[in-house]
Write a structure and sequence with these properties.
Number of helices: 7
Order of helices and strands: HHEEHEHHEEHEH
Helix content: 25-40%
Distance between the termini: 17 Å
Largest sheet: 6 strands, mixed
Number of strands: 6
Structural class: alpha+beta
Strand order of the largest sheet: 1-2-6-3-5-4
Length: 163
């Protein structure tokens, strides 16, 4: 699990969050910690940015991505959230729970995040860095683990740099 260290402290400051938000807004990729592993994040509403994730990871395009959101209200803009899903989100978000729900037809997300499926995987992470980044942007983040496809998920900044 990503821990608090010098690299993470730098990323968590306001200037680091602002720089990451600017990179994401421009369609770039950033590595960011979650409470489980490091993710490779891009704006989920940009087909070009999402394509960069698939290319960087060498990920097959039939493998959907998790979309990270601030909260249940933001998730509801992208998915049909029934009562059971709402109860789960209220009980376990923020946290490492991913809900796979029917994607809204009007969801403004890159089609590749769902890999052609009628569902969308949504998560509201608890890590303070990821929460700060989601608060700094006005779009959700597609953020699978920050490793090459088929390799072990990174749990330290060094793992991210190595892959």
């Amino acid at each position: 699990m990503p821990g608090k260290n010098a690299t993470e402290t730098v990323l968590a400051d306001a200037a680091g969050i602002a720089r990451a938000a600017a990179i994401l807004s421009a369609g770039g990729l950033v590595a960011v910690p979650t409470e489980t592993v490091y993710g490779l994040a891009a704006r989920a509403d940009s087909a070009e940015a999402v394509a960069r994730i698939y290319a960087a990871k060498g990920r097959p395009d039939f493998n959907p991505l998790i979309v990270h959101v601030r909260d249940l209200a933001q998730a509801s803009a992208y998915a049909e959230v029934d009562a059971a899903a709402a109860r789960l989100a209220q009980a376990f978000w923020p946290g490492p729970l991913t809900l796979v729900l029917p994607r809204r037809d009007e969801a403004r997300l890159a089609p590749a995040v769902s890999a052609g499926l009628p569902t969308i995987a949504l998560r509201a992470p608890a890590h303070p860095v990821m929460q700060a980044l989601l608060a700094a942007v006005d779009f959700p983040l597609a953020a699978p683990s920050a490793n090459r496809s088929g390799f072990i998920s990174p749990t330290t900044p060094g793992h991210v740099l190595a892959s």
